[in-house]
Amino acid sequence: MSAATQHYDVVILGTGPAGLQAAIHASRKKVSVLVLGKENKSSLFNAHVENFCCLFNVTGADMIGNGRKQAAGFGAKFSDADVLSITPKDNGLELKTEDGATIDASALIIATGTHRNRLNVKGEKELTGKGVSYCVDCDGYFYKGQKVAVVGNESAAADGALTLTKIAAEVHLVSERLDVSTTLKSELDASTVKVHLGRKVKAIRGDKEVEALELSDGEMMAINGVFIEQGAKGLLQLATNLGIQLDDEMRYIRTDKQQATNMPGIFAAGDVCGPPWQVAKAVGEGCVAGINAADYAKRVTK
Ligand SMILES: Cc1cc2nc3c(=O)[nH]c(=O)nc-3n(C[C@H](O)[C@H](O)[C@H](O)COP(=O)(O)OP(=O)(O)OC[C@H]3O[C@@H](n4cnc5c(N)ncnc54)[C@H](O)[C@@H]3O)c2cc1C
Predict the structure, then answer these.
(1) Is 98's pLDDT higher than 80?
(2) pLDDT tens, position by position, 152-204
(3) What is the pLDDT of residue 193?
(4) Among 34, 62, 277, 281, which residue has the most ligand 1 atoms within 8 Å of its CB, making it the best to mutate?
(5) How far, in Å, is the centroid of ligand 1 from the Cα of 81?
(6) 16 ligand 1 Cβ < 6 A
(7) Looking at the predicted structure, is the pLDDT value of residue 236 above 70?
(8) CATH class of the domain defined by 132-228
(9) How far does residue 110's CA lie from ligand 1's centre (Å)?
(10) Is residue 139 predicted with pLDDT exceeding 80?
(11) Cα distance between residue 67 and residue 17, in whole Å
């Protein structure tokens, strides 16, 4: 995708069943639709589905491939770039993606799935809130002038590390294999982030708070805080930065029966709205969100 600003009536974050069903219904209402996200990052991609009405013995990858073809047939466009930020702008929203694109949207559908983003290493649970964090945008500022590490392989980790260079004195990125856009990779190369490629975290060490990361090769990396940033930028960061209301446990996006959030023009669908985590629920909510987002976009662009 080019670096010039583009405008779409409806932008959909997520190319899982919720996002794709939303894209099919929105495109059929003759509005311009862009779907962002990576198909192999959908929870469905590696699943084998046996409980979805009217389909027998179908792989998740086939379902997603078919959904993308259907949506494209109705005019939806696709980009596999992850979104890094969303900001309100005039009569809509401005999105920045990992490949450096800026996209304006009249309406937005968040269908980013759930993040099961724990590292599951020794010390993580005990030190959560005591130096272990899952949100650079929420907690980064607590580490002004200190040493921090970010752990992860994708856009959220790279972007988080770059953000922290403006706050912390020293930023390490521990990554088994870096899987980010060339734009983000160049930004990392030009930054002060110390990238530890091909390395894994074995444990998070500290008595009352985080003191060090123990890497799998035995090295102890002295740090004051560690950010676990697996996958793409997740629900909590994108949503709370915007002011979108979450549920009482602050884990899922709260919507009404129209799949509308508390913010005008922003809808949500699928696992991001909470359990049951099932394709049938995701496509149902995606359908409602797609129709309502398209109608909203038509109203505001009249
Ligand atoms: C192993 C396994 C087996 C399963 N089996 C079944 C089953 O048999 N039956 C069933 O009904 N359900 C099953 N599920 C659950 C089902 O896969 C999910 O409920 C469904 O995929 C949720 O759809 P979704 O569209 O909400 O999210 P997902 O399918 O998870 O899609 C999320 C999308 O959001 C994108 N995304 C995330 N962050 C960003 C960002 N910052 N910018 C851009 N894009 C972003 C991702 O790249 C991805 O494309 C299974 C799940 C797993 C893990």
Answers:
(1) yes
(2) 998 889 999 999 999 999 999 999 999 899 999 999 999 999 999 999 999 99
(3) 98
(4) 277
(5) 16
(6) yes
(7) no
(8) alpha beta
(9) 12
(10) yes
(11) 8
Cβ proximity of 148 and 224 under 8 Å: yes
Work out which ligand 1 atom sits closest to the CA atom of 113. 27
How long is the chain?
302
DSSP element (H, E) containing 7: strand 6-13
Site to substitute for ligand 1 among 1, 42, 97, most atoms within 8 A of C-beta: 42
Q: List Cα–Cα distances, 119 to 132, 196, 229, 281, in angstroms.
A: 11, 17, 9, 28
Centre of ligand 1 to C-alpha 293, Å, is: 21
Domain with CATH 3.50.50.60 in the chain: 6-115+234-300, 132-228
Average the pLDDT over each of 13-17, 43-47, 116-120 and give the range with the smallest value.
116-120
- What percent of the chain is modeled with pLDDT above 70? 96
Whether the link from the prior residue into 88 is cis, omega within 30° of 0, is: no
Joined together, the tokens standing for residue 273 give 């709205």
pLDDT, mean of residues 213-233: 91
Q: Is the CB of 18 under 6 A from ligand 1?
A: yes
pTM: 0.84
Using the mean position of ligand 1's atoms as its centre, give its distance from the Cα of residue 106 in Å: 25
CATH of 6-115+234-300, picked from 3.40.50.12780, 3.40.50.2300, 3.20.20.330, 3.50.50.60, is: 3.50.50.60
Q: How far is the CA of 271 from the centre of ligand 1 (A)?
A: 7
Q: What is the pLDDT of residue 287?
A: 98
Answer yes or no: is the C-beta of 43 below 6 A from any ligand 1 atom: yes
Give the whole-number percent of the chain exceeding pLDDT 90.
Answer: 77
Q: How far is the CA of 111 from the centre of ligand 1 (A)?
A: 9
**E strand or H helix at 170:** strand 170-175
3-state secondary structure of 218: coil
